[in-house]
User: What shape does this take?
Amino acid sequence: MSEISKQTTAEFAAAYLENNKQNALQRGVVKNGITASAENMSAKIVNVPVFSVDVTTGKVSNQKQSGRCWMFAALNTFRHKMLNNFKLKDFELSQNYTFFWDKYEKANYFYENILATAAEPVTSRKVAFLLQTPQQDGGQWDMIVSIFQKYGVVPKSVMPESSNSSNSRDLNSYLNKKLRKDAVALRKLVETGQTEAEIKTAKEAMLQDVYNFLATSLGTPPETFDFEYRDEDKNYHIDRDLTPQSFYDKYVGVDLDEYVSIINAPTADKPYDKSYTVEMLGNVVGGKEVKYLNVDMSAFKKLAIAQLEQGESVWFGCDVGQSSTRDSGIMALDAYDMNDLFDIDFTMTKAERLDFGESLMTHAMVLTGVDIIDGESTKWKVENSWGEKVGTDGFFVMSDEWMDEYTYQIVVRKEFLSPEQLAAFEAEPKVLAPWDPMGALA
Assistant: This one.
């Protein structure tokens, strides 16, 4: 290993001070900050919020201080259908309801993985991975499908937001404390040779505690309810004695088994036109397996466009923090010019960013439009879940080049896949390690 000498640093400092351009930049960046100094206004001019294909939606939702983007995005795709089918206005499905059951199921999923790895030392990479974050707000499309299929959905009016769903930091902190303590107890039960029945009894007592904790923090999920509303024509409707499952069947009516997750991961370990899953990634034991089909970017965008052109929005996952402006809602590679600001080349390929930990999926949103000129997509309309005060009334504009580099996943109906793509998806998937970037939770 080679240390940095004081002489070398002195030479660096002298070279910096001799550069008048860098001194001028220093004054601006120190005062205004890095991103503000590097923002490129031309990106906003190019990416105007006008689209040749534009799905009708209502107002955007707001996940507030929580990491529930993946479930907000999924519920928003349902809401778009309901707004049109039942002439609803400003309607939302309960994100608190799905949040409750996701936390509950994630606790059990964690317990089962702790038991499955009980023979491994606590320092093993798998056990360390589990204990680092026993559960969190984030998730994947197939995980929310498992919640919908087991628990249904309810209107937001039936189980409204709570303080702890809108700001989930304390809930996550104390639930993870509980789960780690339970992991100690479960591993000891295995170590001391307790029977399966004794371990099951202990785990069920732990789950009772989790249920109580969630009910106290989020409220009790309804088992039956009435759905009462006025449509846009001012007509009154009431539907009595619904269950969350019967409400889903009647008012959402989407066959979730007809949707598949498509990814674009151009890394050497994931050949295109193959299916993949991720070890220990899930929430509901016995629920839907998380599964992807990896395709090149051209096929990826064609599938998204096909669904949009049929009037249906598209759930998608991306790395939203890369080269995007929160206030104006522009997602473009030239949103900031960091290379010129620092005279440093920050460029990496998409594969390099995935392999070396520079990027992964961090956020899920909804594609609701695309601008197609001369047969080619140029920009995309994005419904976010950060409220109406960002972007254009909560909607963002994503350049086509940004999608190429930082979008990783879409969910589309099977009918849009070619026979070859469908066969590849349905084939036995390659199992990726728990810490693979494609296991990231939005």
Residues 169-191 form the longest helix (23 residues).
